[in-house]
């Protein structure tokens, strides 16, 4: 835990940010968004519960004095402290875990997921959950559950190795339950998935209202990731069942859900969220911080900015560039952004693809840039090739800089761009190349689109609008926490959420 020396202020509204793999230990769009909220609300007090990889990740953001505690929850570092349960406690935990697993694997028992999850949360608070899940009994319970007659997963003939693998993955996924949950104020999960677990525990134990913001659709990204994961189907069935039911529980229990685009809202409603408890809040940028970029480069150039990650689908972008270069031999592709730890193999694969296609001399990986505006200014056209996005900062930043864009039609991209850029299907290098060529060959149209893009940002997507909206949400939810009774709490939160979402 990192404790900021700033003193807490009596009477200040309190927000606990719940993050995974982002703020304050990593750069990227969601981290930028968190920093904007924190820096923009010096009148509020903030804590952060940050789910990380190993727990050794440094804090890479300068935290202001009104950010107090930063609690790091490593999913892949040393296990949480504790000892295995004994006697009746062990039997109660085993029974709860059996109900939990049954809910993941048997559609007829999905209603048991929530009660079982909160029983596991209480065990995690006592320090017994993680040791139990690392023991033989947890493996045996899973092996017995998914071999029950009538379960579809049984047809895949799950093995003991599958049971050991699944149990280990669930133990890691449930580690955030061991973090001390928020006790007051508002818990704000800035993504779905495991970051929400401390917030659900705080809601169940201390009636702290949960605010959920999804930038991308966490569940969709898990589905995409597990398509190529090196696990057999029984393992995938259990893990995807967990992420699906966790998403549904989060949607049902959140006081308010603030997706970053209307596309996410469809997933949330499909997952059981009350439409009256959903309010779309777009990301925003400061147009003064991202002014018009000025003259374009003399050499026809496509630029890209972001983290080097498979979800950004740079391979499609490299293939599209190859088609562009066949028409414009002097064209260049410049890629700006860091490579997360563990992502080196993906970057090497992209570099190898560029070499294989004969374009290694024209494709450059520039790494992190001190001023992201330079990345947008470097291109005549700014590209976005992702297979999953929320409401991407790189896109609206490039628009604010007055650059025309070619983007894939994912998440809230079409909502952001409107008619100020070209939108193409994901994973389609031919369509992407055609759009890039269209803009590279039409200078007057390209510059007119860039000017219209900047005006669109100024009119609709400013940082001030975003901060003011979330301040009002925080204060509204915090104002309703104290008077609620335990029995009427969830009903009253729904009433408050309805007034916010209207």
Question: Can you summarize this structure?
Answer:
The chain has 19 helices and 13 strands. It is α/β, with parallel strands linked by helices.
Task: Describe what this molecule looks like in 3D.
The protein has 502 residues and is α/β, with parallel strands linked by helices. It has three domains: 2-78 and 179-277, 3-Layer(aba) Sandwich (Rossmann fold), CATH 3.40.50; 87-171, no CATH class; 301-460, 3-Layer(aba) Sandwich (Rossmann fold). 46% of the residues lie in helices and 12% in strands. The chain contains 19 helices and 13 strands. It has helices spanning 29-40, 87-105, 113-125, 129-133, 136-145, 160-173, 197-206, 218-227, 233-253, 262-270, 314-327, 344-356, 372-377, 393-400, 413-417, 429-440, 443-460, 463-479, 489-501; strands at 2-3, 14-20, 45-52, 67-74, 186-189, 210-212, 256-257, 301-305, 332-336, 363-367, 381-384, 404-408, 422-424. The chain has a seven-stranded mixed beta sheet. Strand 9 (332-336), helix 12 (344-356) and strand 10 form a beta-alpha-beta unit. Helix 6 runs parallel beside helix 9. The longest helix has 21 residues, at 233-253. Residues 14-276 form the DUF3492 domain.
């Amino acid at each position: 835990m990192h404790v900021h020396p700033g003193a807490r202020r009596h009477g200040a509204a309190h927000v606990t940010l719940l993050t995974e793999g982002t703020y304050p230990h990593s750069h990227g769009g969601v981290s930028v968004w968190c920093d904007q909220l924190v820096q923009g609300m010096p009148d509020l007090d903030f804590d952060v519960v940050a789910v990380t990889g190993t727990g050794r990740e440094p804090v890479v953001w300068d935290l202001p004095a009104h950010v107090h505690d930063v609690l790091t929850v490593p999913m892949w570092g040393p296990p949480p402290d504790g000892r295995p349960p004994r006697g009746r406690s062990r039997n109660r935990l085993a029974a709860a875990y059996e109900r939990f697993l049954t809910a993941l694997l048997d559609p007829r028992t999905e209603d048991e997921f929530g009660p079982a999850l909160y029983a596991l949360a209480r065990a995690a608070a006592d320090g017994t959950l993680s040791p139990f899940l690392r023991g033989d009994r947890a493996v045996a319970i899973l092996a017995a559950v998914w071999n029950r007659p009538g379960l579809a997963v049984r047809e895949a003939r799950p093995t003991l190795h599958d049971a050991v693998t699944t149990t280990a993955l669930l133990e890691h996924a449930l580690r955030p339950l061991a973090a001390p949950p928020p006790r007051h104020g508002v818990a704000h999960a800035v993504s779905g998935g495991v970051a929400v677990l401390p917030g659900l525990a705080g809601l169940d134990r201390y009636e702290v209202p949960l605010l959920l913001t999804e930038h991308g659709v966490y569940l969709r990204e898990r589905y995409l990731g597990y398509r190529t994961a090196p696990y057999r189907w029984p393992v995938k069935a259990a893990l995807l069942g967990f992420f699906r039911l966790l998403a549904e529980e989060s949607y049902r229990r959140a006081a308010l859900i603030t997706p970053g685009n209307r596309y996410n809202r469809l997933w949330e409603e499909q997952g059981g969220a009350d439409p009256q408890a959903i309010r779309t809040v777009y990301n925003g940028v400061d147009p003064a911080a991202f002014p018009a970029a000025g003259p374009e480069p003399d050499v026809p150039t496509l630029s890209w900015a972001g983290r080097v990650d498979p979800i950004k689908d740079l391979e499609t972008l490299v293939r599209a560039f190859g088609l562009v270069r066949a028409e414009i031999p002097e064209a260049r592709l410049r890629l700006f952004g860091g490579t997360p730890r563990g992502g080196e193999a993906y970057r090497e694969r992209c570099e190898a693809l560029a070499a294989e296609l004969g374009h290694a001399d024209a494709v450059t990986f520039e790494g992190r840039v001190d001023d992201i505006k330079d990345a947008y200014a470097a291109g005549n056209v700014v590209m976005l090739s992702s297979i999953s996005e929320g409401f991407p900062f790189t896109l609206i930043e490039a628009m604010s800089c007055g650059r025309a864009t070619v983007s894939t039609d994912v998440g809230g991209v079409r909502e952001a761009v409107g008619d100020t850029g070209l939108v193409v299907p994901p994973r389609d290098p031919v369509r992407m190349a055609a759009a890039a060529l269209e803009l590279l060959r039409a200078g007057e149209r390209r510059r007119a689109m860039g000017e219209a893009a900047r005006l669109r940002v100024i009119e609709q997507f400013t940082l001030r609008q975003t901060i003011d909206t979330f301040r009002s949400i925080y204060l509204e939810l915090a104002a309703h926490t104290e008077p609620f009774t335990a029995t009427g709490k969830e009903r009253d939160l729904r009433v408050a959420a309805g007034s916010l979402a209207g």
